[in-house]
Automatic annotation (TrEMBL):
UniProt modified residues of type N6-(pyridoxal phosphate)lysine: K252
Organism the protein comes from: Superficieibacter electus
Protein name as it appears in the record: Acetylornithine/succinyldiaminopimelate aminotransferase
EC number: 2.6.1.11, 2.6.1.17
Gene from which this protein is expressed: argD
Record has ATP-binding as a keyword: no
Amino acid sequence: MSQSITRDNFDEWMMPVYAPASFIPVRGEGSRLWDQQGKDYIDFAGGIAVNALGHAHPALNRALKEQADKFWHTGNGYTNEPVLRLAKRLIDATFADRVFFCNSGAEANEAALKLARKYAHDHTGPHKSGIVAFNNAFHGRTLFTVSAGGQPAYSRDFAPLPPGIRHAVFNDLASARELINDDTCAVIVEPIQGEGGVVPAEPAFLRGLRELCDRHQALLIFDEVQSGVGRTGELYAYMHYGVTPDLLTTAKALGGGFPIGALLASEACASVMTVGTHGTTYGGNPLASAVAGEVLTLINRQEVLNGVKQRHQWFCERLQAIGQQTGVFKGIRGLGLLIGCVLDDRYAGRAKELSMLAAQEGVMVLIAGGNVIRFAPALIISEEEITAGLDRFTRACERFVSGGSS
């Protein structure tokens, strides 16, 4: 007989670095999940912008099972067909000439920052090692990437941190200009700050960063871990802005729920990484690569990307109405299906409370700090699921502003 599992077991057995919801999902289909008691939830969280095609998508299931019946893993002493096909798809669809595969967004960003320092070391010298990042950014949880992320709450307990990283104000080109100089090897930026509050970059800001990097021979890194793979209505957000980086990191939605990350690079940048300079045991394994290849095939189609833009309108129109009806929000921002609702000042710091009420009503949402409710649903979520989910969210907002939990 299998062991009975409850939410209390998390508190007994797991390292307490998360505070998960009170329910345990056990089954999913499309944009719905069911918990152990059979209650259904409409999923507007998308596994934190991961489940771009929803849950249990039949094409992804088929790709995984077909590869699982062949072989799972060999290590990086060998290559495989799925990873080579995936690399070619990414190269054909983007600015990139070369790809490095890993297992997560943090690893992709770690690889990008290492590459940037090696590029500067090889072309200029060891003094050119400075990295400019931005306040309220999030680039991962490794020591290097948590240092680049401009959120001290995530890094201050792990000092001493890697040196040579300075933070400018996001969307403030003058602030960046003060820090970027000839000793800068890289500038890393999210086209849309996700964890930092769902804040899109202004086009002039990204254009200015591109110009500053060119002037000072620094590499421009776009962290598209959250904004990539169709999330904004373009395959990658740099296409929306018309600004091309030297390096781009991608993960989350790339595997549709199966762990995979990638660093995309121009030929000139990639050439500094030679045998032995970097690596990963699991990166580019055939299982992840087969699934990610199917994800790209399904998402990188104009009808899907246009559908993201249409769904953005559906969400924003209804969320604006909810805000007017309840007074809970003072603004809505974002691109595509990465949307943030900023709480009115009266409710500052209470986003988690509202998200928990939403779960009670049967809809899963995210937060982005204490003041923003974040939506990152499947890119193909149906209009009916959007309507039903926002009906549930409306009830949660009404309970929230009335101060009631019943």
